[in-house]
């Protein structure tokens, strides 16, 4: 199957980034969000990214114009999925919400369309089997910022069709991303490792082992991580990290995965990371500073 049109459901940080790379791949791309303000912010963030690329000489005005032509904001989900070959869901990490959306997608999307979820840790089979077409449902876990990060984690479940996996691999290739294939186990490969490292880094920060920037520097320079675990947690979203940790703890019946109290306290205060201007670091002026 050739991908010609794609719908992205959810216009937050991840959804906007996914829509951006789809448009850049040359596909007719529709971005939808049930909240008009979120949709406007998502579209604005994509244009801002392209404008910055022009300023830095990485993107031409002609490229931006071509990509903008491929990208539209859809006012309702039916318009978004009309005639598409691929739907990528990127809504918050709530199982009941995702299942509800996938049941709706089964009704309104074309019967040949691949239905992908961008979840970073929820069980794909539970989403897939909430529909009558589990063979078309697959996990496609992108990484933030989507236009920059080269990895796409493809998650298979027992009911997925081999053709669906192959199409997901081809989608990754068309986006210029390297894909890995993992089984549908809690946390997959990346989230399970990443959140545990981030949680331990928060524990070290709470215990006064070192400052946030020094902990991050240790992992960047000592282990060649491109970004320290605390800065990455702020970028991903502390609420997202906390939800994944709790999901892992429940799935494995192992409280060692539970989020550190400092993480819970930050989330309770609304300090969710870069997206709110405050997290482990202070991002109020757009730059990372110690709090």
The CATH homologous superfamily of the largest domain is named: NAD(P)-binding Rossmann-like Domain
Could you say which overall geometry the principal axes of the C-alpha atoms support? globular
Low-confidence stretches: none
How would a crystallographer describe the biggest sheet?
8 strands, mixed
The helicity comes to 40-55%
Return Rg in Å: 19 Å
Order of helices and strands: EHEHHEHEHEHEEHEHHHHHEE
CATH topology of the largest domain: Rossmann fold
The chain-level structural class is alpha/beta
The assigned CATH architecture of the largest domain is: 3-Layer(aba) Sandwich
What is the overall pLDDT average? 96
CATH class of the largest domain: Alpha Beta
What is the percentage of strand-forming residues?
5-15%
Please indicate the count of domains: 2
Give the tally of β-strands. Answer: 10
Annotation field: number of helices: 12
Q: If strands are numbered along the chain, what order do they take across the biggest sheet? A: 3-2-1-4-5-6-7-8
- Terminus-to-terminus distance: 50 Å
């Amino acid at each position: 199957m050739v991908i010609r049109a794609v719908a992205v459901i959810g216009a937050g940080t991840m959804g906007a980034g996914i829509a951006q790379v789809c448009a850049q791949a040359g596909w007719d791309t529709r971005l939808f969000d049930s909240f008009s303000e979120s949709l406007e912010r998502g579209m604005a963030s994509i244009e801002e990214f392209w404008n910055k690329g022009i300023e830095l000489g990485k993107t031409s005005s002609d490229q931006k114009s071509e990509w903008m032509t491929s990208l539209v904001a859809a006012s309702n989900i039916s318009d978004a999925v009309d005639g598409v070959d691929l739907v990528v869901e990127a809504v918050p990490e709530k199982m009941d919400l995702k299942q509800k959306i996938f049941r709706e997608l089964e009704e309104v999307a074309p019967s040949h369309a691949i239905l992908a979820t961008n979840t970073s840790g929820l069980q794909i089979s539970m989403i897939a089997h909430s529909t009558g077409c589990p063979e078309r449902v697959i996990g496609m876990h992108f990484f933030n910022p989507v236009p920059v990060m080269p990895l796409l984690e493809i998650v298979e479940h027992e009911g997925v069709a081999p053709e669906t996996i192959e199409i997901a691999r081809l989608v990754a290739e068309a986006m210029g991303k390297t894909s890995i294939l993992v089984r549908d186990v809690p946390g997959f490969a990346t989230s399970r490792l990443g959140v545990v490292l981030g949680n331990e880094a928060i524990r070290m920060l709470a215990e006064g082992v070192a400052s946030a920037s020094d902990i991050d520097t240790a992992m960047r320079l000592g282990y060649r991580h491109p970004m320290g675990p605390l800065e990455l947690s702020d970028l991903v979203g502390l609420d997202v990290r906390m939800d994944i940790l709790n999901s892992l703890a429940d799935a494995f019946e192992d409280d060692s995965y539970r989020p550190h109290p400092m993480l819970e306290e930050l989330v309770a205060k609304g300090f969710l990371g870069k997206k709110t201007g405050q997290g482990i670091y202070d991002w109020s002026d757009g730059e990372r500073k110690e709090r």
